[in-house]
């Protein structure tokens, strides 16, 4: 039925829409243009702060709400806030303590600011280049408990990240959403701030059924948006759990997997 055609594609950013150098390829930009031409809405969601996705707006002519912090905040293309969900003040320090106990660095995103314990810490420089703004140094998480949209645990020990993820889930249960956005990042957000909530939010905004939504991603936190969409696509570089949960698998993000997915899977259903 025509009413079941794909009318919106929701894409993860890192590991999906951009390549390993965190760059948009010409093929990705062209693919999104073809979506616009086919009257298919295009939206992005990421663990990044909204400012960290600003560089996507003009090249992709984004008009849909931008979902930062895995759905913890929705902004317009001018970065004005539509709505946001923050962590309870009294949970910020306990969450930070659990993450620290697994030897992960703790980053805090408070309002428009990003705080780190050490400017020379793991992944700080890389993340600064990715999101195109620098963090501030925090002395103690106790000084940053209000309006916290996301807490991140950072380590290149991927097993430690998995263990910290499980520990946060066990300790705080459904009071938070906790999942890795990269093998080296544990993202902790408001319990209703996950990529599944982004798909549901956009469905309500544009009066779409799940069958009219396509989603594409590479990490386990992307599976949550798969659950609210009819066409689900995993990147070739995706976690094996993500591939198993998706209906289709495309090429890697360093081989224009996003653009290929649009051509092979989305446009034929549009």
TrEMBL record:
CDD domains: HAD_Pase. SUPFAM superfamilies: HAD-like. Pfam families: Hydrolase_3. Gene3D superfamilies: 3.30.1240.10, HAD superfamily/HAD-like. GO terms for cellular component: cytosol. InterPro entries: Cof (IPR000150), HAD-like_sf (IPR036412), HAD-SF_hydro_IIB (IPR006379), HAD_sf (IPR023214). It comes from Mycobacterium kyorinense. This is Haloacid dehalogenase. One of its GO terms (molecular function) is magnesium ion binding.
């Amino acid at each position: 039925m025509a009413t079941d055609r794909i009318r919106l594609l929701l894409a993860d950013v890192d590991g999906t829409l951009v390549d390993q150098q965190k760059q948009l390829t010409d093929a990705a930009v062209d693919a999104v243009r073809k979506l616009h031409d086919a009257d298919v809405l295009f939206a992005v969601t990421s663990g990044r702060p909204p400012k960290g996705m600003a560089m996507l707006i003009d090249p992709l002519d984004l008009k849909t709400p931008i979902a930062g912090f895995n759905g913890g905040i929705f902004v317009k293309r001018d970065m004005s806030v539509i709505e946001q969900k923050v962590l309870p003040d009294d949970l910020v320090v306990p969450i930070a303590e659990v993450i620290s106990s697994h030897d992960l660095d703790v980053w805090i995103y408070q309002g428009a600011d990003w705080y780190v314990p050490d400017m020379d810490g793991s992944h700080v420089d890389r993340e600064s280049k990715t999101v195109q703004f620098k963090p501030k140094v925090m002395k103690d998480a106790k000084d940053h408990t209000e309006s916290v949209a996301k807490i991140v645990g950072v380590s290149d020990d991927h097993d430690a990240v998995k263990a910290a993820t499980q520990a946060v889930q066990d300790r705080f249960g459904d009071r938070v959403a906790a999942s890795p956005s990269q093998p080296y990042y544990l993202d902790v957000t408001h319990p209703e701030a996950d990529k599944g909530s982004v798909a549901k939010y956009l469905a309500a905004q544009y009066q779409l059924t799940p069958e009219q939504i396509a989603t594409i991603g590479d990490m386990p936190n992307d599976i949550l948006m798969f659950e609210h969409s009819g066409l689900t696509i995993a990147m070739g570089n995706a976690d094996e759990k993500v591939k198993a949960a998706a209906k289709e698998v495309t090429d890697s993000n360093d081989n224009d997997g996003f653009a290929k997915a649009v051509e092979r899977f989305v446009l034929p259903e549009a």
